[in-house]
Amino acid sequence: MAASFRGRPIRSLRMRGRNDSGEENVPLDLTREPAENFREILQNVAKPHGVSNMRKLGHLNNFIKLLCSISHREENFGFTYEEIIICLRLALLNEAKEVRAAGLRALRYLIRDTSVLQKVLRLQVDYLIARCIDIQQSNEGERTQALRLVRKVTAHLLILVSYV
Predict the structure, then answer these.
(1) Residues of the chain whose pLDDT is less than 50?
(2) Is this model's pTM higher than 0.85 or not?
(3) pLDDT per residue over 122-139, tens digit each?
């Protein structure tokens, strides 16, 4: 017999539309044009009000899923790399450590070559990465994502230096 609480299955007592991490399930329709999905994701990540932090977290995770499902050509995005980086930069300024960690992870997946890295550095995202490492809170997940991003940046910088 299935476990129940007051006549209801325990499964239905969970909050609907959320994962165990608290992230809201934000549907991602991969049959839509990637540019439409990117527009929806970046609009929700960049909104200062009206979108919960857990919904922003869901959108940032969808950003990564979408990046992995398409080729990394700027014309597929519907946005320039600079525009995407500016929107993701806002996630690094969020008050929720989970959103900042997801923003760091999204940037790490976005950086595929040194040209994207140069744009990230030109937009001074490196200062925000350092800020995520330096914040004096219990934010191990955020620090882990920041250090993974720093490791990727360092690898690409070594490639740049070897060309010089």
Answers:
(1) 1, 4-6, 8, 10-18
(2) no
(3) 999 999 999 888 877 677
Homologous superfamily of the 21-163 domain (CATH): Leucine-rich Repeat Variant (1.25.10.10)
Domain ranges in the chain are: 21-163
Is the CB of residue 18 less than 8 Å from the CB of residue 54? yes
| pLDDT for res 102 | 96
| 8 Å CB contact between 67 and 84 | no
Q: What is the pLDDT of residue 11?
A: 44
CA distance 61 to 99: 10
Residue at token pair 């995202």: 125
CA R_g for the chain? 18
Q: What is the pLDDT of residue 3?
A: 52
Q: Which backbone phi and psi does 115 adopt, to 5 degrees? A: -65, -40
DSSP the chain: ---EETTEEGGGGSPTTB-TTS-B-----TTS-HHHHHHHHHHHHH-SSSS-HHHHHHHHHHHHHHHHHS---HHHHTS-HHHHHHHHHHHTT-S-HHHHHHHHHHHHHH--SHHHHHHHHHTTHHHHHHHHHH--SS-HHHHHHHHHHHHHHHHHHHHHHHH-
Bridge partners, 24 (sequence order): 18
